[in-house]
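Deliverable D4.2, example record:
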Amino acid sequence: MADPNSYPFYVVNFDPFAFRLPEGFFLEGVRWYGLAYLAGFLIALIVMNVYSARGRSPLSKDDNVSLITYLLFGVILGGRIGYMLFYDFSAFVENPIIVFQIWKGGMASHGGFIGVLLSILIYARSRKVSFWTLSDIVVSVATPGIFLGRIANFINGELWGKIAYLPWAMKFPHSVKYGTPIENIPPRHPSQLYEAFGEGLFLFAYCQLRFWLGKPPKGQLSGEFLLLYGLVRIACEVFREPDEGVSLILGMSRGTFYSIFAIAAGVGIIAYARFRADRKLSK
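Output generated by the structure prediction step:
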């Protein structure tokens, strides 16, 4: 093991608030995390409008705004409820009202996926549009939001990685007891950044290439997204410290365990999409 003092480890100690409100307001201020969500949806809307303008989407620009609204509620409600059920169920049972206290933080990406799924299903039925067409569009624009969300996790100094004495390791003051001297804080993997680039930028590049250059059957891109997300998430979980106070499942972190279901769903959707396409060609 390298000498702990051999590298000038960066200390992650940002203000989680982009700006604070005067005392007396209901909210203390506007957090970077909230702005990340807002920016993610804005980028998704812009890209969806490009799809519409170039004839790659059956939706108009007004339809895109409506779909984004559905997705906004799906992500927030699904992510929040998923966090309470998957990561903090005991607190939820003790006081169910905390599920609405979104400003206190706590969102689960897997729960967000479920919320998005339900939102797409409801929107597709209400507008009589193919569910799989919408699903492929949504997964191709979702990853910038994931990227920005992980960057916000990094700014907040949360969801840190495991202890590592590497040149790019960083110190997270929230990972130790309050008041611990900086020199006594062990450096860790900046796992939030690993996830930002893996779950965010890599998947965005992949989905955009497949959407514009490839011609996969309807639904296959959705399956590929779930499959790759699960694999990338499991890889990143190797470097991420399991959430404090959250028990493992079969010796695996919750993120790894739930990602297995994402992989299974992805494989199943790919198989189903290809089966439908082959069946259509054979007629």
